[in-house]
Amino acid sequence: MKFVRFLMKNAALANAPKHIDHFSKFSPSPLSMKQFLDFGSTNACEKTSYVFLRQELPVRLSNILKEINLLPDRLICTPSVQMLQSWYIQSLLDILNFLDKSPDDHSALRDFTEALVKIRNRHNDVVPTMAQGVIEYKEAFGQDPVTSQNVQYFLDRFYMSRISIRMLINQHSLIFDGTTNPAHPNTIGSIEPSCEVAKVVRDAYESAKMLCDQYYLGSPKLEIEEINSNCQKEPISMVYVPSHLYHMLFELFKNAMRATVETHESSPSLPPIKVMVALGGEDLSIKMSDRGGGVPLRKIERLFSYMYSTAPTPRIGDFQQAPLAGFGYGLPISRLYARYFQGDLQLYSMEGHGTDAVIYLKALSTDSIEKLPVYNKSAWRHYKVSQEADDWCVPSKEPLNLAVHRASK
Considering the entire predicted model, what is its pTM? Predict the structure, then answer.
């Protein structure tokens, strides 16, 4: 029996490229926050979700698998990327097993939910594993501008795809597993229909404060201000995924606290971190202001680069460290969480003073639509770009000594 299963598995793997080619020809179907909410609250039908996901998840997995193959061969061949590729192919094959199973079969529905949970657990270490692959590549071959540009483009799309796949899996598994979270009885899957922004801000602050107190034996205080243009006396709330918002805020608080403590280490007191939450007709904006000395303008974009992390290399599975510590992926992935539902994350810094970090989110659930990567000719061309000469003068690091030129004449 084991031998038969072995043969069947090998046959399925052999057919994987054919399945990837087929499903990558379809574009993913982005959903709005309102669609997620409406489906989970009023039209929650497990059969409908099952039929949608068994088609949509292979499309999203296949689209990003095609892009993995466009990476430099030497990066694809690293052990970490090889392992990651095998996870994605196995997850694709797991879902394809349900294509010919009827939604009226209750055992198929149960097995499908179990398969989704298994896939989610399999992909738990996707971020550090891909990061490890990039480190392996850099250590073996160094880096050049073209490769750095391609890796940046790919990782933004790859991690965004991962966020979207986990969102779909979480919604299905949380809604249809038959249990409710007593701490959050009103959540629809992972979505909070009335997410109080200030509460998430305080939760993220307390978690970052605990880390800061642990490492620096002190931390800056928090000051929150809310400006609700729709109803001035009401606290600001929105339809959102609290875990996504928490992830962004926690990362920003960690950075702000570290900069503040290190800049004012000889001062008797620490300046507070100020957070302003503003709700307008179209945007919900969260501004976090610190007085941590700021960052030079030329380094701002580098903070969002996956290839420029100077932090020490961590060990995968080292749970004693803060999330993503050592990979330098906190800010770029936080920006992806903001962009996932058509928002953004921007940094505005004044060197010598401090930094303002602004999270922009859509105020309306109908405007909060998934931003998904699509594998097509436009994407393909991004990986084929060659290094071109700059069409602006590039200043030298040392100023020109005009006296030498006069002497030579």
Answer: 0.90
